[in-house]
Specification:
This protein is α/β, with parallel strands linked by helices. The chain has three domains: 332 residues, TIM Barrel, CATH 3.20.20.80; 207 residues, Class I glutamine amidotransferase (GATase) domain (Rossmann fold, 3-Layer(aba) Sandwich), CATH 3.40.50; 53 residues, Golgi alpha-mannosidase II (Immunoglobulin-like, Sandwich). It has 18 helices and 23 strands.
Length: 687
């Protein structure tokens, strides 16, 4: 091994150790691959013959794959009837994987629940808000709050991990594929569980009535039995709707905590790497406030549409961890059923740039039946390898080279963006429950604003963490951005206050801190609980179209369609910028010194053109690390003094570089300009 490669691995090992020490020790088992990258696949062996499986394993090995994820979506393959377990195929498969040198990410397949469970335990089935009991017609139509479901999934996890925890092929454990997806339920048992949840949360009917604003519109609750589950599709008051969504979030989290307790009992040396879906539109759950209870490494299904949104979602799934991201499901080609050549390789390198460690394409073989029968895998319907298998073999070769050169990229972001499940719910109320008076103000919702706040940082190649303010140590960051946090809970407000007081810099945009923990507007001046921190108050707002904001240095930033502008009333805050095309040129941007830090407020919803010049100034003042400057469509980072570039477009790009540098992926030498082909990636080392 060359000296510089050995040094790189030693440095990375030290970084990994420091990262592990930074996280709770009881949920960070031994590092599953310091200085290692993994290309693998998702595998459904239950519709394959043993002859096909043998051939599949040989092809995986030949392609350079290291890890295979299976078990997901297949509860009845392990337990075909209640209490009758069948592990014969899995025993054989684990042994074959071990013989081939392949590691296994074994999913506990808690969803979907088997048909036999729905038949024997009706409480596992979903009941609609109209009172109709639904058959499990598609995946994830399971009531995870049902006690029988929880008892049986716990037993499944115990039986699987008792059997495989010590198997040499076992690499990691996952829980309930796409946990967070699914439907809420309205059975009488669910209503009673909701009441029990409310009693624990509020303690008394008086507290509940206050939290739910029942003094309005004749909604007072005089007995616990009068409580009903609010409708998921509306209509319904905002306060109780939020609590209903919190209740179902807690039900999902309780299952994940329970399953992780089983892992800690039987396989404490194996990490939990689960394909979670906290932002699933039908239900979702509060992962960012609770992930340390059941997550070792952030993991997700990575099916990118465009780079900015893909990067934000992956960053959100990494949460506040310094550990790498796992793409437990990974795009196998791109848009459409068959994909575009070179696109998967580009996204794999893009993932490494974001801090990924593994890509597991969905899926290995094309499915002949079921819900995804037209989805093409790496092996076609006629059992022949497609060109995609060769592309993932190329990715495996790239990864084998890069894991010796400082990958996976373990990040230490200096910038954080706030996110909260509660806020998503508060700004995405049921359509039938949102009045016309509030609709213009809470829309656009949080995610649109979050992307806008992230965009200048993404284009500037700045590492970012997406976090729940109330669940993280904010002292790790130099800059915290709070875009459109309509509901900013009390704990988050306190931590934000302490962060600024201790010397941090915060940027908040309009529509933030308007409602309290119960989704009611603050009785105090706005932004609620933070007017002294920001040195201003704001209450009124007006609609606006295109805006021009002039900064202190004379620079003019322009943005189209602001939707709403808040009227800022500075007290101790100084005006940094004004709207020059609005009557009276009202304040657009203010800064307030508070304690040792400063709090900056933007009077509009988060918009990239207005935030970009502010970020540029703050990045310079705070000495925030950035990657190399790149043309539009090219992302880049510095990895152990080497420059790593990924062209996310199909068009060739010319990237200015300093001097003469050698491309470690292409083997070419470049002087002055790196010519990146469409979907191309390169790691440059100075000559």
């Amino acid at each position: 091994m060359k000296t510089h490669a050995l040094l790189a691995q030693l440095l990375l090992a030290v970084t990994c150790l420091q990262s592990a020490q930074a996280e709770p020790a009881d949920n960070r088992p031994d590092w599953p691959g310091a200085g290692q990258l993994f290309v693998g696949t998702n595998y459904q062996p239950y519709d394959r013959t043993r002859e096909q499986i043998e051939r599949d394993i040989a092809r995986m090995k030949d392609a350079g794959m290291k890890v295979v994820r299976f078990g997901d979506l297949a509860w009845d393959a392990f337990e075909p009837q209640e209490g009758r377990f069948d592990f014969a195929l899995t025993d054989w498969l684990m042994d074959r994987m071990q013989a081939a040198g392949l590691k296994v990410l074994l999913d506990i397949p808690g969803q979907p629940a088997p048909v036999w469970m729905h038949h024997r335990y009706p409480g596992v089935s979903i009941v609609t808000q109209q009172g109709t009991r639904l058959d499990p017609a598609e995946r994830y139509m399971d009531n995870v709050a049902d006690p029988d479901y929880r008892r049986l999934v716990h037993r499944l996890a115990e039986r699987m991990l008792q059997r495989y925890a010590k198997h040499p092929a076992l690499f990691a454990v996952g829980y309930n594929n796409e946990a967070g997806n699914g439907m809420v339920s309205y059975s009488e048992a669910d209503r009673l569980r909701f009441i029990a949840w409310l009693k624990r949360k509020y303690g008394s009917l008086d507290a509940l009535n206050t939290a739910w604003a029942t003094q309005r519109w004749s909604r007072r609750i005089n007995a616990w039995d009068e409580v009903r589950l609010p409708y998921i599709d509306g209509p319904g008051p905002y306060e109780r709707y939020l609590d209903m969504r919190r209740f179902w979030s807690d039900a999902t989290i309780a299952v994940l905590r329970d399953l992780d307790a089983v892992r800690r009992r039987f396989a404490p040396d194996k990490p939990a790497i689960s394909n979670l879906w906290d932002s699933a539109w039908r239900k979702g759950f509060d992962m960012l406030a609770t992930y340390r209870d059941y997550v070792s490494y952030g993991a997700m299904g990575f099916y990118p549409g465009e780079p900015l949104g893909a990067a934000f979602e992956a960053t959100m799934m990494r949460a506040g961890m310094t550990a790498p991201i796992w793409f437990n499901e990974f795009t196998a080609g791109g848009p459409g059923y068959y994909g575009t050549r070179g696109r998967s390789r580009m996204w794999a390198h893009f993932g490494l740039l974001l801090g990924a460690q593994a890509v597991l394409p969905w899926t290995w073989h094309s499915h002949h039946g079921g819900e995804e029968q037209a989805l093409f895998g790496l092996i076609d319907h006629d059992d022949r390898p497609s060109w995609k298998l060769a592309e993932f073999a190329t990715i495996a070769r790239d990864f084998a080279q890069l894991e010796k050169l400082g990958f996976p990229r373990l990040q230490q972001p200096q910038v954080a963006i706030a996110y909260a499940f509660d806020n998503i719910i508060a700004t995405n109320l049921p359509k039938e429950g949102m009045s016309n008076t509030v609709r213009p103000y809470v829309n656009p919702g949080y995610m649109k604003q979050a992307h806008a706040a992230y965009e200048p940082l993404f284009k500037g190649n700045v590492d970012v963490a997406v976090i729940h303010l109330g669940a993280e140590d904010l002292s790790r960051y130099k800059l915290v951005i709070v875009p459109g946090m309509y509901l900013l809970d009390e704990t988050s407000r306190k931590r934000l206050r302490a962060f600024v007081e201790a010397g941090g810099t915060v940027v908040m945009t309009a529509q933030s801190a308007k409602v309290d923990d119960h989704n009611q507007w603050f009785h105090t001046p706005l932004p609620g609980g933070l007017t002294d921190v920001f040195g201003l108050r704001t209450n009124e707002f007006f609609g606006a179209g295109d805006l021009q904001m002039r900064l202190e240095n004379g620079e003019v930033a322009k943005a189209a369609g602001a939707a709403s502008v808040e009227v800022l009333e500075p007290a101790t805050a100084e005006v940094l910028a004004r709207f020059v095309n609005v009557e009276g040129q009202p304040p657009a941007l203010t800064v307030n010194r508070f304690g040792k830090g400063r709090a900056i407020y933007l009077a509009t919803v988060a918009q990239a053109p207005l935030l970009a010049p502010l970020y540029e100034r703050l990045i310079s003042e705070l000495n925030i690390e950035t990657g190399p400057r790149t043309p539009e469509g090219v992302s880049a980072r510095t990895v152990q003094r080497r420059r790593y570039y990924v062209n996310t477009t199909a068009e060739p790009k010319d990237v200015p570089i300093d001097g003469t540098q050698r491309g470690l992926l292409s083997g070419q030498t470049w002087t002055g300009t790196l010519k990146l082909p469409g979907f191309g990636a390169e790691l440059l080392q100075s000559q």
